[in-house]
Amino acid sequence: MEIEHFFQCPFCFSEISMLLDPSVTEQEYIEDCEVCCNPIQISYGMENGDLSWFNATGVDQ
Question: Computed over its alpha carbons, how large is the radius of gyration of the chain?
Fold first, then answer.
């Protein structure tokens, strides 16, 4: 089961929701904002199936 997480885009400040996989302990990837299409570096960590930390930073183009 995936976990829905809400965060703010570092470019347009829109609230975005993302589905995170709790079976992966740490993950890092780049995904475009669904509103402004700018690239965001997403990184997060899970502990015992719960989100322990999350970071969303803008990628310089």
Answer: 12
Residue identified by tokens 């969303």 is 56
Question: pLDDT tens for residues 12-55?
Answer: 999 999 999 999 999 999 999 999 999 999 999 999 989 999 99
- How many other C-beta atoms are found inside a 10 Å radius of the C-beta of residue 46? 19
Confidence category of residue 59, pLDDT binned at 50, 70, 90: very high
Residue 44 CB-density burial (10 A; 0-12 exposed, 13-18 middle, 19+ buried): buried
Residue in the block written with tokens 């990837």: 29
Contacts of 39 (CB under 8 A, 6+ apart): 30, 31, 32, 33, 58, 59, 61
